Amino acid sequence: MARSDGRNDDQLRDISITRGFQVWPAGSVLVEFGRTRILCAASVTEGVPRWRKGSGLGWVTAEYAMLPSATNTRGDRESVKGRIGGRTHEISRLIGRSLRACIDLAALGENTIVIDCDVIQADGGTRTAAITGGYVALADAVTWLGAAGRLADPQPLSCAVAAISVGVVDGRVRLDLPYEEDVRAEVDMNVVCTDAGTIIEVQGTGEGATFTRSTLDAMLDLALAGCAEINEKQAAVLAEPYPGELPKPKSVRS
Amino acid sequence: MARSDGRNDDQLRDISITRGFQVWPAGSVLVEFGRTRILCAASVTEGVPRWRKGSGLGWVTAEYAMLPSATNTRGDRESVKGRIGGRTHEISRLIGRSLRACIDLAALGENTIVIDCDVIQADGGTRTAAITGGYVALADAVTWLGAAGRLADPQPLSCAVAAISVGVVDGRVRLDLPYEEDVRAEVDMNVVCTDAGTIIEVQGTGEGATFTRSTLDAMLDLALAGCAEINEKQAAVLAEPYPGELPKPKSVRS
Amino acid sequence: MARSDGRNDDQLRDISITRGFQVWPAGSVLVEFGRTRILCAASVTEGVPRWRKGSGLGWVTAEYAMLPSATNTRGDRESVKGRIGGRTHEISRLIGRSLRACIDLAALGENTIVIDCDVIQADGGTRTAAITGGYVALADAVTWLGAAGRLADPQPLSCAVAAISVGVVDGRVRLDLPYEEDVRAEVDMNVVCTDAGTIIEVQGTGEGATFTRSTLDAMLDLALAGCAEINEKQAAVLAEPYPGELPKPKSVRS
Amino acid sequence: MARSDGRNDDQLRDISITRGFQVWPAGSVLVEFGRTRILCAASVTEGVPRWRKGSGLGWVTAEYAMLPSATNTRGDRESVKGRIGGRTHEISRLIGRSLRACIDLAALGENTIVIDCDVIQADGGTRTAAITGGYVALADAVTWLGAAGRLADPQPLSCAVAAISVGVVDGRVRLDLPYEEDVRAEVDMNVVCTDAGTIIEVQGTGEGATFTRSTLDAMLDLALAGCAEINEKQAAVLAEPYPGELPKPKSVRS
Amino acid sequence: MARSDGRNDDQLRDISITRGFQVWPAGSVLVEFGRTRILCAASVTEGVPRWRKGSGLGWVTAEYAMLPSATNTRGDRESVKGRIGGRTHEISRLIGRSLRACIDLAALGENTIVIDCDVIQADGGTRTAAITGGYVALADAVTWLGAAGRLADPQPLSCAVAAISVGVVDGRVRLDLPYEEDVRAEVDMNVVCTDAGTIIEVQGTGEGATFTRSTLDAMLDLALAGCAEINEKQAAVLAEPYPGELPKPKSVRS
Amino acid sequence: MARSDGRNDDQLRDISITRGFQVWPAGSVLVEFGRTRILCAASVTEGVPRWRKGSGLGWVTAEYAMLPSATNTRGDRESVKGRIGGRTHEISRLIGRSLRACIDLAALGENTIVIDCDVIQADGGTRTAAITGGYVALADAVTWLGAAGRLADPQPLSCAVAAISVGVVDGRVRLDLPYEEDVRAEVDMNVVCTDAGTIIEVQGTGEGATFTRSTLDAMLDLALAGCAEINEKQAAVLAEPYPGELPKPKSVRS
């Protein structure tokens, strides 16, 4: 049984990572996994939240949200509903936790970086794409802080972070599920990895089904290989010079 | 005293209107006035709000919001704050009111169109740009409804709607203020017009200053001329065929 | 076509301004435009909001609200709904902005004046009546601050502020619309002026209709004349001594 | 030790009850106990809340609130805070419960009467004044319903309701405490009675002190006598014809 | 007419008071009145709320809540509804006020004690049981503070606090109503007393009925006798050594 | 390096499961893992949420919450804060999803079962203990529905659900972490399993550290063995007759 977009079971969708998408934030990345499109912006603020003050440690956090027009059927705004839903909370926490795994907060110094991941268009795998793009935006923000002489230590990033979804669809273990596969997946798993091949987070769920240990192993194999491939793309994109002039955001702020 | 971007006092910024920016909504427009960039999406739902049911009339409404990363300094999310601020409310109401002025709601039939205006990047004039782009998205949504045979009457749009800001800066009456001029303007006015040269809305405010009737007249002159120019751009863009296949969104939905 | 209350098109309703309506606030005015009745109270607090501290500048802000029993059909309380509606926000912001146009905040010193405009009975034109009455309450609060020796500078008020509604009803341009005319007006405009004849704010809206530049001009003519008349009434009322003893509120507070 | 306003311990303040204070509600009463001034409006709606539908029973409820300018020091609006405080809830519930004690809800038919008690000026005893004025507004609303032929039964009111505060101040049992006595009272009690001399509600609290059974008895004696006096005033006021034309509100609504 | 559980009209249900129910709080009491079961925990925090700082006075407050599963029909969580209901507010305030009547806040020193009363199972009389159990938890917390050398003065408790419900059911005055009697009571009263026989709070309400002064007297007789009996049980329980090791919570905290 | 409570790395804490803890809910279980104590109540309602009506399917959902006094340091109530935190949302969703994996919602018929998991005392592993106890409460509620003849099909439960935490502490892979180990764990994982040995959910997180595939494998080994042991305890407890009379809750409800 073939995938509706013709991919092999272990094949990623086309991935595109565009840096410098906005002028104001220190890092701003448009990340695309097929039709899934997310704007990941890394905003830098001097100082840290109250509960952290005087610790010498910086802080990295993330906020995930969907534009109402991002989905097949228009979604209501959480600002209009007056409360953030459980799913949004859960994903924001996952992104923040994942990105903090690769950064030395003492080296960051008492700076706060907020990674805003706003889904422009959703077609499955938004949380893993947000982590993938969020890492690149974070890397650019760290570079910007370094250029501004505001880091406590020259290189706070200890590894690169990538993430991918994997699942069981039509009885087959498949990588990088689009929405159409995601809604009918029996098992759904998200894996966050580093470029050292280690794991930051694993979240696997049977959807109206349970799964065996060997299925879990097969999903992990696919996910780890997919993450390695994404790490390569991130490295290639970050090897390029910053599009648009890096000093511009700095002068805007001051 | 010249403008910082070299424009004449009566000159608009570069305006760009990109249709079909997203795949799911019936109309999706990225509108740009210089560095101001707004995504205007027109989502169609069958039926109308409860208080309208059985009236035979359709409904058009708008919601305006800013991405946290859209501004010079990161803004807090209204969903996180748990309430929508006064400015957001005010602008959403203005956009909805302005766009309803050009549509015959009986001809629309019992359909609802929500125009989501999400500011990707802010550099002054976001509310007028949102109205300008929102009209184009609305026009595409109406065309889409017509193609789907869901209109009560073939042509519900009676006019085109454009809007522009004008103000007094450095003692001079100027058109289309960027953020840098907006913050130090003595008078700030937004004008919403139709392509028939009539006015839908005028909102003029002295910012720590008051203004004379003759200054008001000079501002109106500039704004009406600016709107006429924008109406031409809208017409030119809408004369093009829909980028990407028009029937696609329809089949996605069903 | 005559007006239902027999007035000429350019005629104001009976206006009454009662000072000293409450004992606690430094200024307290009951303003009446026909059956529209609003209680405008100016409360003084020492100090300014956090974001203003140490600036040497004072602050003036306004809050508008309707009693549930003020309208034809009982309205739900915004405190019960748990959120303030868009219309309330919009009007509160308009009143505050309008009153700040006439006051030198440096001369006010680091004091805060809140103008509470609570609608006791609504019959059209509540926002313009609130501005008109709010100015008188503000003037009394400033006098009270002066008498208490708490002003940085003897006369912070640079002009008087009045406001009036104007609109197109039954095809005729009319001044000071009661509710019955307001609901069927084709165009609705609010104008805020100073006693120097200059304009602070203009807000004109086509309600399911658009309007020409010449209609706009005719509406402005009527509104400016109406405001001049209201300014005279304000001046006459403020020329009277404070009803009730001015020193009383001071001693209550200390 | 004399009372600061010269009254005897068992003496009420001057009480004034003004009917027909607003034009829209079916009953509208301005009640004054000394400087305490409350607007009690009784609004009638056809039908009952969902959980009552089809029961044949009507519903009476109350909402209490304070204008920000009603107190010595300006209070924040509960609509701005986004939640109703415990004290407000408690008093609203007390007023509703007290007024329901005197009405036969079957005779009322499936109509809802909301009693809005908005404190214009507070000087102690607002909750008991609200009950006292609320009863008169309720009686007018019931008369209005009767005149409109909308009652299931001609006379739903079975008794009249009055309320008064009593307390121990300076070691003496005193009736009808103003704010100045209320804040330093050792014991504070509110009593709600009928014109048949029976009790609807008793709420007595030691404020940083406890009290004996005999003090409780002395307070009850004073309160019951005070209520009887208030009941007489209510009866006298209600014996007058409705000020302003009774039929007007009816025609306004239809 | 006999009571459904066979008790005499003046008889309490079986009362059980279990101390040391939880390991973390300084006082933790499970109180049972028949099937009514409430967990009363007294948590100690160093310091006082902002508005009390530097006063040298401590603070005691209470929060009452029901588990969703505590009642016959499952109740919605107030955290899910996003607001605390009027009844909850009212009871929390009553408990806090009652317990503050017996404690010298200067002797407590700048410490805060929060009494959390969480209803595990409800069968009538939860507010009076919460006060009864809350007192015992408070006493244990005060002992704990004394052992930790954190009291400003050795014995801040000046009396013991107990509470009981009483009412008129089937035309008879009865003590300690279970839910089954409570819902059909004509009059419902809660009385809070000290072990000195004085009264802290009386709250009596006619439920769709009014009551005479002599009925009130009969209810007070029963309630005062009931409270005296409960005070004895409290004293007996507090005379026992603390179950589980008293020093444990202290070491856990530090 | 030994564990502070003397257990082996692969050893569970003492587990106790008490059924029939409350009288009102159809299932009510107090589950204890060492000092962690959670009340899991399964409440049955006829009918399903609106979006499910007419589907013939039942619904199972869960709500998790902590008593303020359950933790070392008192936690603020989410009802007081007015919003549910991200962690609470996340855990509630996990419990609901886990329990739905073992039930045939068609067999359940149009009934709703809400599993309330209220943490009485927290000492690590609350979410996994809640799933473990929640399953037993769910099983009792299903039995109760069967006895009441309200199931569409006699046996809707297809498997038993248990959960356990596992982590890396002091460089060692350990089972069932108490709070003291949890806070300093390098890796933290929760595993939900069925009594068929299959997996429902896996959530593993590096806390300021990443982990290798082989560590993941070792954690899974321990967790699966732990779950099997817990499944046995559940089966043993459910083999006992219901403590207290099963028919009682039924008659209470009707």
TrEMBL record, chains A, B, C, D, E, F:
Limits of the Exoribonuclease phosphorolytic domain: 11-141, 160-225
Subunit field text: Homohexameric ring arranged as a trimer of dimers.
InterPro entries: ExoRNase_PH_dom1, ExoRNase_PH_dom2, ExoRNase_PH_dom2_sf, PNPase/RNase_PH_dom_sf, Ribosomal_Su5_D2-typ_SF, RNase_PH, RNase_PH_bac-type, RNase_PH_CS
Keywords: Nucleotidyltransferase, RNA-binding, rRNA processing, Transferase, tRNA processing, tRNA-binding
Its EC number(s): 2.7.7.56
Family listed: Belongs to the RNase PH family.
A GO MF term: 3'-5'-RNA exonuclease activity
Name of the protein in its database record: Ribonuclease PH
Reactions performed catalytically: tRNA(n+1) + phosphate = tRNA(n) + a ribonucleoside 5'-diphosphate
PANTHER family per UniProt: EXOSOME COMPLEX COMPONENT (PTHR11953), EXOSOME COMPLEX COMPONENT RRP41 (PTHR11953:SF0)
Residues at which phosphate binds: R87, G125, T126, R127
Enzyme class label: transferase
